[in-house]
Design a protein that fits this description.
alpha+beta
């Protein structure tokens, strides 16, 4: 099994690889154009997991944040060929450790059913008063 490393260095993000991982292996990002993904990367704090031997990016997550009070963790994905090795946990733990340095009041995410346990182990819980939260669907 190869060794892996987590990084919060935005210079290491392989935007083409991220787009591939999301468009091919994440139902919520199916059909997302590369230009949209690149814009999302540019406007977010980005995190990756890489093989130590080759530096290939095998995991990705991003956080949309004001940097002071709130963040939304999104687009968490691990290459299917590398799943089952704790990389999702490593990715989430690394992202949350980075976000913790900001002293945010709240970090939210919409958890996929298959990863719910990973998020619960990382300290996420159901929303307090979910009925108070509203959404406005976008145009896309």
């Amino acid at each position: 099994m190869p060794d892996y490393e987590f990084s919060a260095d935005p210079a290491r993000i392989d935007a083409g690889r991220v787009h591939h991982l999301l468009s091919e292996h994440a139902y919520w990002a199916a059909g997302r154009p590369r230009t949209v993904q690149d814009a999302a990367i540019a406007a977010s704090r980005n995190y990756g997991v890489y093989t130590a031997s080759t530096g290939e990016q095998v995991g990705y997550a991003r956080a949309v944040t004001d940097g002071v009070t709130f963040a939304w963790l999104a687009d968490v994905v691990v290459d299917p060929g590398h799943r089952g090795r704790g990389l999702g946990t490593r990715l989430i733990d690394g992202a949350l450790a980075d976000l913790d340095t900001l002293g945010l009041k709240r970090v939210l995410l919409k958890a996929s059913a298959e990863a719910r346990e990973v998020y619960l182990r990382a300290g996420f819980a159901r929303l307090d008063e979910p009925e108070a939260w509203l959404q406005r669907p976008g145009q896309r």
